[in-house]
Protein 1
Amino acid sequence: MHSHWSLVAFTLLVQTTVGSLWQLFIVLVLISAPLDPHYFEIHISILLLILIISLICAMAHLGKPQKSVYSARNLRQSWLSKEIVSVNIFTGVLAVITAVAALFAGVAQVLLVLCGGLAGGFALYTMTCIYLIKTVPSWNHKGTPLTFIGSTFLLGSLPGLALSLVGENVVSGRIVIGFCVIGLLLKFMAFRFAPPKSYADSQMMLPLLQLLGVGILPMIQLLSSSALYVFPVIMILVGEYFNRRQFYESYRRVGL
């Protein structure tokens, strides 16, 4: 599959945004209190920027980006059209949330994040359905949605960890590790569903680098050094990149 780098970036960045919104929602529910308005505005703004970058990457995959508007015409029959519309709706919802957070400090954050998380969840659903194609056995199995959702949980922890690098320690370590563990479990389960000959090097699909990155998180928390979070962030990012690239390189059409 040509230009898979743009699809790798697009899918991973969208999943990062969705997972981070889910994590923020859990944080708000558990603490039963609003986050610092300044932190909330920064976090949401970063997610919006990530989502915009993902759309730019998606445009790079198209041969003629100026004609991308026509790709959304077949909503009834095409999951690609549904994905295009749902991701753009998600972007619009997140833009509204960002504006509201900037203008109204006392707004109900949990409600805003819930709306964003639901819109993101629908975008993730349409994105996943695109790859469940009968003529591509390497994708058409339960492992595809599992690995996409697993990546959502794993990558969703990274914005919070990245903000910890600059002293914004809001998301608790337990929630970060919980999300990462859920993500890893889903990705290991996904590997079990993949057809034996789906990948040129099947071991690359195992989230071993991500496992190592998550494994050092408890030690970093014991050391109370936010600067060290850069290592698990890099490990998880690099591992997810190689896993997703291998996913696209496994494309083999059979039959029609």
Protein 2
Amino acid sequence: MVYQIICNADGSWRRFSYLSQAVERLHGCTVEAALADPAVIYNQVIPEDRALLAEAESAALRTLSHLNIDVRLRLPDGRLCWHNLVSAPRILDDGNIIWDGIELDITDRKQAEEALNQSRATILSVFEVAPVGICLMQNRRYACANKYWCETFGYPEDALIGKSTRMLYESDEEWERVGNELYGSLRTAGIATAETRLRRRDGVFRDVIVTAAPISPEHPAQGTVAIIRDVTDNKKADA
């Protein structure tokens, strides 16, 4: 929707001087009704976002810069939706202000973002509470590790970020062997497993099975997720 608003300097008086026909689809009212009474549209903005909109307008006026803000509206049919407002102020010779702007319905985008955030939150919760060591790596450097992994090897997460995975291996040769075994299989099968020994912070070695897979098979540069299972006690029991 394209619109133009004229108001006085303190914003106590304002009206629409132009509205495109899209107002009927976006706000459920006619152009004539909104031109006659701007409250038909302004009252649809929920109170919390009305205050945010007023603050954004004041900031844009102080610097004569563009306003770009997302606000929530309650439409006449009861639906709650998100609209994006982009506008720019012009100060007239008589002190009044003109706002030329565009308004878009971004409800679908906001809902998709919310669903994605919820999915990320769920994945993060699983990552943190999983009873197995999980770490993310980029170019065989640690990007993050879960609580179980840190407790198993005795390292706080901030001591790992950016460090090479070589720090846990007994030798360069073993580090290279595991890397070749894992990444060679990743390229062909998409998932790989290797058995090795990793050194805890206290110097004690633990027997582990490492299972790795790319975060995104289509974009290998995003890194690799590795699940590390400590099998030391199992091996001792078998022996």
Protein 3
Amino acid sequence: MPFNRRDIRQPQGFTLVELSIILVIIGLLLGGVLAGQTMRRNQQLRAVGTNAATYMMAMNQFKTTYGYVAGDFPTATELWGRADGGVPLTSNCAAPDTTASVGAPTCNGDGNGYLNATGHEIFRAWQHLAASGLITGRFTGISPYGIGISIPKGPLGNTGYGWGAGLVEVNNAALADATYFDGDYTNMLTFGAPAAIMDGAALTPAETFELDTKLDDGVPATGGMRVYKSNVACAVDANGYNVGSGAVSCAPLFLSIYKAAK
């Protein structure tokens, strides 16, 4: 068969029109992905505040019903039994700091109005709230901060909620504290990544400012939602967040009204 030059097919590239269409499609896909990520992040941020409000209201209801804050409740075992199954069932656990349980059986607090910093009360609080039916979940009641195990899981990655202990009150400039802006932080609720009381950084300053604006007054040093005074990467001063930074550096604190009787 004679060789025919016209039978040789040269590879054809994309035309400018075809390339333009492809680039538009890629742009639409990327835009959709980014928009979806933004929407998901916004939903998660709203959930941070919604969950916090739920837990604060649950603690308020517990205090109203039982006369004590959850975790500090000194007769919890009379209602739900001892976590260690000891006798009598209505007395406190032999080792409340280390006796784990999942379900209603629990251990007592000391009834002083404050959630203790180093003991079991900040963990039993979640167990008492769940046993009373005011929140959902099953918690061990002891340390460490196991997300979804001893504390509720937060809506952002490796985050959760924790109860702060009976902290020293800071009420005026004369008592100024390096860590906290002036206020009463007794039995506060925290949100963040694992740290001392689930207060590791979890949000950017801009996200925290947005959350504070929606839930409270938008100011880091006042109102019911605050951040640490010592964390200048999050709040540049008492009046403003460091919104120019995109770094994850903030952990919100939700002040509680559940204090010991004076």
